[in-house]
Amino acid sequence: MLATGGEVFGTLQLPALMADIINNGIAAENTDYIWQTGLVMVGIAILSAMCALASSFLSAKVGANFARDIRDDLYKKVTSLNMADIRNYSTASLINRTTNDVNQVQQVTMMMLSVMLLAPMFCIVSLIMAIRTAPDMTWIMAVGIAAIVTSVVIIMMMVIPKFKIYQKLLDRITLITRENLTGLRVIRAFNNESLEREKFESTNDDLTKLSIYLDKILKLAGPLINIIFNGLTLLCTYIGITLLNKDFSYLGDMSAFAQYVSFVMMSFLMMSMMFVMIPRANVCAGRINEVLKIKPKIQWRTETNGIPSKVASVEFRNVDFRYPGAEEKMLDNITFTAKAGESTAFIGSTGSGKSTLINLVPRFYEVTSGEILVNGINVKDYQKDDLMKRIGLVPQRGLLFAGTVKSNIMFGAPNATMDQVKDAARIAQANKFIEKLSGGYNAHIAQGGTNVSGGQKQRLSIARAVCKNPDIFIFDDSFSALDMKTDAKLREALHPITKDMVVLVVAQRVNTIKNADQIVVLDEGKIVGKGTHVELLQKCKVYKDIVKSQLSDKEFEKEIRMANA
């Protein structure tokens, strides 16, 4: 503000000094006065230029730091939200809000710090100086200001409603691009490149048409204001010449007044540019605030309430769960206990609630009723980090991050030693293929793990969970991409390290869970059977049907005979 004030003060002194040179120097033929006043003008111009540089530098710095803080806040907010909080926002929309929307706000912030401070100061001080210099010509400025304000208001009314549509189309472009890049194999497999191209081109055409419309309307501001400015200049000249016929000494005042008018018009030109930019930035700011104002449905404690047991356990007590907005329960009256040193498996038809159930343990969703206890403490009474460090989750889709094999295995245990990393890879049956990679444990992993196979991704995801050394292992159908031999070796290697841990396994294949200490059978969100493989074959019809569907008649009959023996 001080720098901007210095720039305005210096710039607006120059017309008055020029008027003095004309009236007292040139008219009086006083060369010394012209030189003295001219040197003062040069000094003031240098000072004004230095203030302008300082103002530009500081506004750029503040704008960039402001954008950095908003991006930080957005990132922290998004990463702190749970699944239910962000289900109304697409990934593409959140990316655009963090990048494009923040950039728009940053540009306007920088402009406001320079232009919105500079223009009003120029305008107000120029008006005062103009009125003092030539009071009988001030009506000219009133005409110009009215014309500019009217033009800007009309332009704003035409473009403001379109900015929201523009941002939504930009989100759509990002969404389609992201889907096409991540789903390229599926698109090619179904030979749907032309269909996806049409979707993109249609949205791109809509965005282009809207961009052309907005640019055409916004570009009108410059020519309109130039016409008004040039018209006022001509009007000032005409009126000034008329007054000079009566009093030639009016020349200096007329010259100063013309410059003050130009400053006022420049001020309104700058402000009109801001008034055009602000509506779009306002839409972007609204989209940013929409995310920042989300109140997480799951509130975490600042510290854990109680002392968790040293003996690992997971207990569900009469748990019901319904997705936000859904009418029917996804889980109904779920009750079981998973103890340390035992494996608890979940099986059921598609949509029976298996993955939903295990997503409640790390509190990705909040239970509708009932309670979940981890190591004897309700998950609602945990501090977030305290709960998460006890859980090693291997999701259904093995997700890897851009980096190296080593960085991915150490993702949950950043302080792990190289021996621990290699041991985790050995247990996950990943060490052999890792050693064959160029670079070994330092081999590059592409974003999403696209440069390794599905089975390799799963094994690296399992190694990541093992390296964390948690109290509770959660395997969400994490062995589906492994062959039977690798599956068996992996389970055998896991057994020694899980003797003091709880193991929760979601599976589709009966063969992978038949040796579990406890099998929980789910059907339409309810537990319809609970026990060992043998016990369930004897008393649970749903489980028998699942086993029968996966085995040949001969194998099924053998399983039944063994169960009844």
What would you note in describing this structure?
This protein has three domains: 66-292, ABC transporter type 1, transmembrane domain (ABC transporter transmembrane region fold), CATH 1.20.1560; 312-390 and 472-494 and 501-531, 3-Layer(aba) Sandwich (Rossmann fold); 397-469, P-loop containing nucleotide triphosphate hydrolases (Rossmann fold), CATH 3.40.50. Helix 2 (31-80) packs antiparallel against helix 4, helix 5 runs antiparallel to helix 7 (193-219) and helix 5 runs parallel beside helix 9. It has helices at 2-26, 31-80, 83-86, 91-133, 139-182, 184-189, 193-219, 221-244, 251-292, 354-359, 384-388, 405-409, 418-427, 431-436, 454-468, 484-497, 533-539, 541-550, 553-564; strands spanning 313-321, 331-339, 343-348, 369-374, 377-378, 391-394, 403-404, 444-445, 472-476, 502-506, 518-523, 526-531. Helix 16 (484-497) links the parallel strand 9 and strand 10 (502-506). Helices cover 63% and strands 11% of the residues. The model has no long low-confidence stretch (mean pLDDT 83). With 565 residues, it is of the alpha/beta class. It is built from 19 helices and twelve strands.
